[in-house]
Amino acid sequence: MKGIVFNLFEEVVRRTYGEDTWDDLLDAANLGGSYTSLGSYDDRDLFRLADAASERLNMPTYDVVRWLGREALPLLAQKYPPLFDAHTDTRSFVLALNDIIHPEVRKLYPGANVPAFTYDTSSPDVLGMTYQSPRRLCAFAEGLVEGAAAHYRESVVFVQPRCMHRGDPSCSFRISFARLPR
Amino acid sequence: MTPPAFERAADLDRLTQRLGRERAARQEAERIAEASIRDLYDRQNALVLLRSIAYAANEATSVDEAMQAALNLVCRYVGWPCGHVFFVDDEGGLVSSSIWHDDGTGFDAIRRQTEATAFAAGVGLPGEVLLGGESIWIENVRTHDNFPRARGVVDVGVGAAFGMPVVVGSSVRAVLEFFHRRVFAPNPELLGLMEQVGALLGRVIEREESSAALRRSNARLEQALSDLRSAQQAVIQQERLRALGQMASGIAHDFNNALVPIVGFTELILKSPKFAIDTNTRESLGYVLTAARDAAAVVSRLREFYRVRAKADVLTNVALGALARQVVELTRPRWYNEALARGVRIAVETDLSDIPPILGHEPELREAITNLMLNAIDALTDGGTITLRTTAAADQVTLALVDTGIGMSEETLSRCLDPFFTTKGDKGSGLGLGMVYGIVQRHQARLNIDSTLGQGTTISMIFAAAETERPEPPADIAEPTARKLHIVVVDDKPIVRTLLLQMLAAEGHEAEAFESGVDAMARLESSSFDVVITDRAMPAMSGDEIAMRVKQLPRPIPVVMVTGFGAMMESAGERPLGVDAIVPKPVSADALRDALAEVTRPTRRDAGSGI
């Protein structure tokens, strides 16, 4: 896992719950906590931190990861504005993940193991999206999409017919967006 | 001791600030590192792209192939699905090529629109690139005011586009354009890279043009080399003949001098009434004279190698067919009687159609055909057929001799015109075909030799057909002189002096002979004479000098040069200053009479003309 994800986690926890909470999570996960965005770290560190947060915040781990995604997105938008400025809505942004955003991620973080998404754009109202990754971080993806919807001032509704956490080979979403009133 | 609470709070604030600074420093360091990594990544990819295009361009066998490869590589690099190439034609206009990169996801509309649109300089994306010579980025073609392909079309299927020039020197030679369905903001770094790609492809065009120029230049060089070889062959051939000619002229001079007394005195004895000779002696002397004249003819034949067409040679309309028939009859003893005697049968067939005459020298042509006929007979060692055929086409007339004899190998064929080259051993002189070649050349005709070993030979002489009007025979024929002349004879050889004196006396002239030019000039300065007859090559004073001095006398008189070099001088068109006529040795009474008649004729139009 790239250090950027740990940095985002720290920033999100620090902003919401303060410095001490992040220290507590590190202590609970028994981790040193020295992460730099360009480094690569054990995936298990992230899961241990997520579990620690689940316990500390009294929230299911899936929800912690989803929250992390949702809260991390504004930080990403702040850090990489060109990736967001090229789009005016969430659907367009999501559809660019494979072709534009992930290649950019690979440029910044050589060796980044980004997930592959497949899309079903047959309906103009509902976007079909399939997620597959050995990390099974579908919750993070869901949170990021929620964060993107907030960025583009849209509401979003997720339906997840399949999930790897439920034994399915991949996770699938049917996502609907609606423009929020100004 | 525990510090007071306010001090602990202050320390905590300071530590928190310090932590904040450290975090900010870390994040700034990460940002700088990420930017460097991204820049490095872009540069690496750009290098990979340029290297791939350079490699593909080097591998390509044509400009089109290189363009297609570059189009594919750029599309893959930028992740754009469609690209196209325009070429700039000789008039500076843009021509849409058939070179496209299309991922097959719906660029039919832009392709149709491209084919239906004319792009002058400044018109549309390619026109703008051509006019400005720089890459151009269009964020959204639908809202761009100079993208005619989007006009009147509901959806051209394209959002962003960019175009780049392919440049050779300072001129744009092609334009590459790329399309994406989505809208994209301009990417100046990418356009910069594309201009490098354009320069790279420009070198491909330049290389192709250089290669084409080199091919053209090479073809011209090969042609020049071929022409040079032909010219060299011709020069070598002429040089051989010239060398032979020089040798032959020397032989002819000495031989002619040797024949002078034989021919001259035999003629005198036969013609002069003062020699009372019986019939048997007269007959024997007739044989001597004929043999000597034949020997002179053999010598004169040598000059066929070196002489050019002499002005005095009279060209007449010659019917090749009739001439060929004559030769067939003249050579009958060889191809019929002699062949039968050695047990072989040679058939001679003629296919002499009615053809236009040619302008030529009949005796020479007869000799040429005779030589070819004799060669053909020699080639039929086991018998066979000789066919003489005339044909006419356009303004050309051809006489071909076809034999079914032994033929020639390639080596023999390449040397058969060389003087002294013969395959007949002692029986052949190696001069026959060379003479034919000389005669044909003097007629400005062509000689074609086609031969296959074991199958036979075809030799064709190809002439230009003559104009229908036959040239008038020369009217300026010398009349014998009736006047008794007072003549000075100069020759260093006593026997020639004696002969000339007797010949002149037989004609009723008075002559005085001198061994040297010095004595002759002394006599000429003191007395009056009508004509000087002089040899050419003499010690002390040459015939040329005598002629000049004679012309400087108070009363210049005609000079006749009698010389063994006569034939050579005639061939070279040489006439020493002051010489009015040349009589070749061996001198005959008739030739001498004609020369004297000409040089003393009072109404001569030109003092230097005629022999």
Task: Explain how this protein is built.
The complex is a heterodimer of chains A (182) and B (611). In chain A, strands 1-2-4-3 form a 4-stranded antiparallel sheet. In chain A, strand 1 (116-120) and strand 2 (126-132) form a beta hairpin. Chain A has helices at 3-17, 19-29, 43-57, 61-79, 81-85, 90-95, 97-108, 138-151, and strands spanning 116-120, 126-132, 154-162, 171-179. The relative contact order of chain A is 0.13. Chain A has 182 residues and is an alpha+beta fold. In chain A, 53% of the residues lie in helices and 16% in strands. Chain A is globular and about 45 Å long. The model of chain A has no long low-confidence stretch (mean pLDDT 92). Chain B is an alpha/beta fold and 611 residues long. Chain B is 50% helix and 17% strand. Chain B has helices at 5-59, 63-78, 108-116, 124-132, 188-271, 279-302, 320-330, 332-341, 362-379, 410-415, 432-442, 494-506, 517-526, 543-551, 566-572, 589-600, and strands spanning 82-88, 94-102, 136-138, 161-168, 171-179, 316-318, 346-352, 358-360, 384-393, 396-403, 446-452, 456-464, 486-490, 510-514, 531-534, 559-563, 581-584. Chain B is elongated, with a radius of gyration of 48 Å. Mean pLDDT of chain B is 85; it is low at 470-478 and 604-611. Chain A binds chain B through residues 7, 19, 36-38, 79, 82, 85-86, 99-100, 103, 107-110, and chain B through 16, 19, 26-27, 30-31, 33-34, 37-38, 41-42, 79, 183-185.
Of all protein chain pairs, which has the greatest interface, and how many residues does each chain bring to it? A-B, 16 and 16 residues
| Sheet/helix structural class of chain A | alpha+beta
- Which blocks of ≥5 consecutive residues of chain B have pLDDT under 50? 470-478, 604-611
Q: Helix tally of chain A?
A: 8
Q: Which term fits the overall shape of chain B?
A: elongated
Fraction of residues in H or I helices of chain A: 40-55%
Radius of gyration of chain A: 16 Å
Number of strands of chain A: 4
Give the rounded overall mean pLDDT of chain A. Answer: 92
Which series of helices and strands of chain A comes N to C? HHHHHHHEEHEE
Give the total of beta strands of chain B: 17
Beginning-to-end CA distance, first to last residue of chain A: 38 Å
- The strands making up the biggest β-sheet of chain B line up spatially as 2-1-5-4-3
Structural class by sheet pairing and helices of chain B: alpha/beta
Percentage of residues in helical conformation of chain B: 40-55%
> Which sheet architecture does the biggest sheet of chain B show?
5 strands, antiparallel
**End-to-end C-alpha gap of chain B:** 153 Å
Radius of gyration of chain B: 48 Å
Mean pLDDT of chain B: 85
- The proportion of residues in beta strands of chain A is 15-25%
